[in-house]
Amino acid sequence: MISPVDLLAALDTITEHWSPRVVGRVNDQYVKVAKVLGELVWHKHDDEDELFLVLRGRLRIQFGGGREIVLQEGQFCVVPRGTMHNPIADEECSIALIETVTTQHTGDVKISRTRSIAEQLGR
Amino acid sequence: MISPVDLLAALDTITEHWSPRVVGRVNDQYVKVAKVLGELVWHKHDDEDELFLVLRGRLRIQFGGGREIVLQEGQFCVVPRGTMHNPIADEECSIALIETVTTQHTGDVKISRTRSIAEQLGR
């Protein structure tokens, strides 16, 4: 059965920051939503690009060499595979993510906030 | 260089209905935006799922057997590979699409509105 998924309604069920929830799959990519606040952690994904789309609020993403971009509501960017990055939300921010189904949450590092794919699927 | 892409600003540059514009790529998927009005055409993509996200307005998607779903602003659905579908916008509607880079616009049928990947890339 094909049914509509409401991005903001899916976000309303999330209570924990930096804990993405899988809300759809298109080909080999998951669509996830997350509420974020503060800093995640510097990490990279060696083999997978990662798309960040801001649904509510504002997200900063730091890159190496002191570079940083700011994503406002309705803006997205793609972090290419192999790129060190550190997402930061100065105030609570709601995002959608598109990532290969195998992508690990915090890439090549593991912290207490790291979530497994099973957790992101709500299993 | 990684830079933000503004979905609504990208849409503002589009003047033709049913003519998707590639605005990003994540892994083997293109992110596209399109303005749509009226009916496209019944078609399917044998090997590729297709994600429709409504950014402004309202989109109906018809399926076989008289089934239909309605996507409101902020809602998406994934049309699984091999599924006959026909998108219809009763009033102008702005959408984002996520599709494999090889996905053909109108799948297994060709009509005057069919756009090539090169056209969608603005080449």
UniProtKB/TrEMBL annotation, chains A, B:
Q: Which InterPro entries match?
A: Cupin_2 (IPR013096), PKS_Associated_Protein (IPR052044), RmlC-like_jellyroll (IPR014710), RmlC_Cupin_sf (IPR011051)
Q: Pfam families, per this entry?
A: Cupin_2 (PF07883)
User: What CDD domains does this protein map onto?
Assistant: cupin_YdbB-like
> Where does the record place the Cupin type-2 domain?
41-92
Going by the entry's taxonomy, the superkingdom of the source organism is recorded as Bacteria
The name on file for this protein is Cupin domain-containing protein
Q: Which organism is it from?
A: Lichenibacterium minor
